[in-house]
Each structure stands twice: as C-alpha cells, then as structure tokens.
Design a protein that fits this description.
Layout (H helix, E strand, L loop, with lengths): L5 E6 L5 H10 L3 E4 H11 L1 H8 L12 H8 L3 H29 L3 E4 L14 E6 L2 H12 L3 H16 L8 E5 L4 H14 L8 H4 L4
Parallel strand pairs: 1-3, 1-4, 2-3, 4-5
Helix pairs in contact: 1-8, 2-5, 3-5
Length: 212
C-alpha cells in the first residue's frame, strides 16, 4: 500500500493557518490540530511545567493556564526552549499516533502546526504550505482574537521569527499561501495552490464528502 500523502500547514501567529485548515477539511482532508495535541501534552506535563515556570501557571485544580504560560515563555527565548523541551516530545508522540492512524486508513493527512519547522515530521511532509499575511493585518486579527495589547502582540510576532526562519530548510517543498484579502480570496488561492501541487484530487470522491 502506498504511503498516505502528508501535507504540512503552518504560519505565523494570526496569519490564518486555521482558516486554511478549515478549508482543507471542507475539501475532504483529515487535519490534525497539533496545537490541540500540544494542549493535551501540556496537561500531561503540568507538574514539570509548574516546576519550570512556577505554581502560578496552574489553576486551583492543577490545570495549566495557557495564557499565563504564554506570557512567560514568549517573552524569553531561552525559557521557551526549555518549556518546549518538556512538552514537545509528548506532543510529537501524539502526532505519530495520528499519522499511523491515517496510514492505516489510507487517508491524506494535513498537519496544522504553528511549530511545524521544529517538529521531526516536517521532513516527512510531501509539501508544506506556509500561510502569510501582512503584519498590520496579523496584529489586528490577533489583538481582537486573543485580547492582547499592541505590545504583547508584537512580542508574540517577534517570538516566532526564529521559528519561521527555520522554514528555509524546507525551501524545496515549501509553498507560500497569502491571506490578505478575506476568506473568499484565501479559498481561491488555496485551490490554485493545491492544483499546482497536484493535490486537487488527493481525496477519493467517495470519501471527500463522507467524513466530518
């Protein structure tokens, strides 16, 4: 049985990768929200994270407070690296399980991951789509969505610059998807990109509308 298609999807904070993931799902792709798996991995490592960042990053029930964690780690690259060393191995194991499931089912899979370029799975992707948007649009979207101040939003963008720079490693398989003119334009651009990649027909017709 041939290996299932693996598409990487990434992008900077508030660039619109989740909107692109939703469009892929409409087209029959199975998508894995790696951020969600990261939340599950964080839950499993709550005690270790509290030991690193302090007890204030847990609520009264011992659950991680992601906004409190983000405020600390995104302001300190060294601390961010230590945090990721705790959480990412557990997250990667969950991703491995999702890929194995897709392989058994023979279903093309999209990994929707902000941290894709730091994941070992990036090397296995048949193609990587990086969603980009102008800075002022990202700031406006992200401030409204996450309730951040302008300074905090800039800090979030700056914290991701080294991560996105790692995308140069995958220049041969990386394609840029611009998201600067609304959802309809993003949809058209995504369809055109899938066609250029030869992935427009990746989903069997019998499955494309059958899965949620």
């Amino acid at each position: 049985m041939p290996r299932a298609i693996l598409l990487g999807l990434t992008g900077g904070w508030a660039a619109g990768k989740n909107a692109a993931a939703a469009l892929l799902e409409e087209r029959g792709w199975r998508t894995v929200d790696v951020d969600r798996l990261g939340h599950a991995a964080l839950e499993s490592k709550a005690a270790e994270v509290a030991a690193l960042l302090g007890p204030g990053v847990l609520d009264a029930a011992g659950r991680p407070l992601r906004k409190a964690i983000g405020a600390l780690v995104f302001a300190d690259p060294a601390l961010l690296a230590r945090y990721e060393a705790l959480v990412h191995p557990a997250m990667n194991a969950l991703v491995d399980a999702e890929i194995a499931y897709a392989e058994r089912d023979g279903v093309p899979l999209c990994l929707n991951a902000a941290v894709l370029y730091r994941m070992p799975h990036a090397a296995s992707c048949d193609a990587i789509v990086e969603v980009r948007a102008p800075l002022f649009i990202r700031l406006r979207r992200g401030m409204r969505r996450d309730g951040l101040s302008l300074g905090a939003a800039f800090a979030r963008v700056r914290s991701q610059a080294p991560l996105l720079a790692l995308g140069r490693r995958y220049a041969a398989k990386r394609r840029i998807l611009l998201n600067s003119a609304g959802l309809a334009a993003l949809e058209r651009a995504l369809d055109a990109l899938l066609a250029r990649l030869g992935l427009s027909e990746a989903i069997p017709e019998s499955r494309s509308k059958a899965e949620p």
